[in-house]
Design goal:
Helix content of chain A: 25-40%
Strand order of the largest sheet of chain A: 1-5-4-3-2
Strand content of chain A: 25-35%
Number of strands of chain A: 5
Number of domains of chain B: 2
Number of domains of chain A: 1
Radius of gyration of chain B: 21 Å
Mean pLDDT of chain B: 94
Shape of chain B: globular
Radius of gyration of chain A: 16 Å
Distance between the termini of chain B: 51 Å
CATH topology of the largest domain in chain B: Methylamine Dehydrogenase, Chain H
Number of helices of chain B: 1
Oligomer: heterodimer
Mean pLDDT of chain A: 79
Order of helices and strands of chain A: HEHEEEEH
Number of strands of chain B: 29
CATH topology of chain A: Alpha-D-Glucose-1,6-Bisphosphate, Chain A, domain 4
CATH superfamily of the largest domain in chain B: YVTN repeat-like/Quinoprotein amine dehydrogenase
Number of helices of chain A: 3
Largest interface: A-B, 14 and 24 residues
Strand content of chain B: over 45%
Largest sheet of chain A: 5 strands, antiparallel
Helix content of chain B: under 10%
CATH class of the largest domain in chain B: Mainly Beta
CATH superfamily of chain A: START domain
């Protein structure tokens, strides 16, 4: 559980509003975990340790979905909004965690867009958080 | 004399019958299915949706990152703005075939036209301008300077005004439709994006304020009404406003007489834009996260169907041909 908290907490350091370009980017990744959806959900929404600091926007019990906001200053993306949802797996002791993020690149002005501030960089940076994030979630949930 | 009267009566009867017949024929020929043209920004296509049968008819390849859309009903054209390739794609509504791709030297955001459909107006997001295109020539004929980050653009038929939202300046600007002179600049809530106008009113969805602003064009007074999280677009119908709450996955229904939100309807993920299909009395919502449109019955406010489109459906503008 500590590891799960650390993973999510790391993504929620600061909140700041940016202006942004016109095309929102999307990263959607899933991982299968070997525990029931109810157990996975109970672990995921156990936020009591860090609600003081991060910005959880909503917790939807019915659809097992947590929405949150995160915009860090020193990352190559902005206006990050995301949700994590628990879905049914292939059997009752299996569930799928799906992580969906919507965000923008950092460069706000007219093209040409400088390298490192473009859509591709932003997508790669978010993927570099989401993919290992899901792996860590899996480990944390399955250990529990 | 009696004979003449009867003759007149017969002629009158024939004229009345002819009018009825003509009315019937016109009504019949106009009774086509309403079509939605949905820009799928994540896959560079436009989905054509048959709104009566509620299914996708066709997917059309357009430029890169299509966002804005505007229907030229008289010309039977769907105009699509591609923000990455910086082009317009023009689709023929009769055949649903891409007719032409027009290179622009700017990033097109919002698109609208004047009442006669002689001119298209396109907000140039990065250069703080509005480009005016001739519909006949399909080329830029002039531009005029506006405020920061011009986003939404609509044409007010009643007063012949071009209305735009300046997202990063928190203003709505009103320009004369004939000579492009600024009539008024009005402060709204934070980040006005999608706008709507009818009669003597303008409505803006204020993304960071979770509100809509209503501007009275007679005296430029404004009213602010709270809605859901991160509203993108607003339309009105018979005394009600409908607003997409992008981060709440819902539509707010606002009673304009009472000046407050009365209901929220759950739709697909990240709803962005919406238009009214008056043929079938339904509200059509594009869901960026859901890769779909939600169809809402305007009598019952219930979602009738969610129809799959393409990746990241947005359709910023008035996207229904009816």
């Amino acid at each position: 559980m500590t590891r799960l908290i650390t993973v999510i907490f790391a993504l929620l350091l600061s909140f700041q509003i940016f202006a942004h370009g016109p095309t929102p980017q999307k990263v959607q990744e899933s991982i299968t975990v070997n525990i029931s959806p109810n157990k996975a959900w109970a672990a995921l929404k156990d936020f009591s340790e860090f609600t003081k600091i991060m910005k959880i926007r909503s917790v939807d019990e019915e659809s097992m979905k947590v929405k949150y906001e995160m915009i860090k200053k020193d990352v190559p993306f902005s206006d990050y909004n995301a949700y994590i949802v628990i879905k049914n797996g292939a059997n009752e002791n299996e569930s799928v965690i799906q992580w969906t993020a919507r965000f923008y690149r950092t460069y706000k002005l007219n093209p040409p867009i400088p390298e490192g501030q473009d859509d591709e960089t932003a997508v790669a940076a978010v993927k570099a958080i989401v993919l290992p994030g899901l792996e860590s979630l899996k480990k944390s949930l399955e250990v529990k | 004399m009696i004979f003449k009267d009867q003759k007149n009566k017969i002629i009158t009867l024939i004229i009345i019958l002819s009018i009825f017949l003509l009315y019937f024929i016109l009504r019949h020929t106009n009774n086509h299915t309403a079509l939605a043209y949905i820009t799928n920004q994540g896959e560079d296509t436009v989905s054509v949706i048959d709104l009566s049968n509620k299914r996708e008819l066709k997917k059309i390849n357009v430029g890169e990152s299509p966002l804005g859309v505007h229907i030229l009903s008289r010309n039977k054209l769907a105009v699509i703005g591609n923000v990455k390739s910086r082009t317009l794609s023009v689709i023929d509504i009769n055949s649903n075939i891409l007719l032409k791709t027009i290179p622009l030297n700017f990033t097109p955001l919002g698109i609208t036209s004047d009442t006669s459909e002689d001119r298209l107006f396109i907000t140039d997001w990065f250069n703080n301008k509005v480009a005016v295109l001739s519909v006949k020539k399909l080329e830029v004929v002039t531009t005029f300077n506006v405020g920061l980050t011009p986003s939404g653009i609509v044409f007010n038929k009643t007063l012949n005004y071009i209305v735009i939202s300046n997202r990063d300046q928190n203003t709505i600007e009103i320009y004369e439709g004939g000579n492009y002179k600024l009539v008024k600049k009005i402060t709204t809530g934070l980040h006005p994006f999608g706008i709507h106008t009818i009669g003597h009113y303008v409505y803006s969805a204020n993304v960071y304020d979770d509100s809509i602003s209503i501007i009275n064009l007679n005296n430029f007074s404004t009213q602010v009404i709270r809605v859901g999280m991160h509203p993108y677009s607003v339309v009105t119908d018979k005394g009600f406003a409908f607003v997409t709450n992008t981060q709440d996955d819902s539509i707010s229904i606002v009673d304009l007489n009472r000046g407050k939100e009365i209901e929220k309807i759950a739709v697909g993920e990240n709803p962005e834009n919406l238009s009214i299909d008056s043929n079938d009395n339904q509200l059509i919502v594009t869901n960026w996260g859901g890769d779909s449109i939600s169809i809402i019955d305007l009598k019952t406010y219930k979602v009738i169907k969610e129809v799959k489109t393409g990746l990241q459906s947005r359709a910023f503008g008035s996207f229904i041909y009816q």
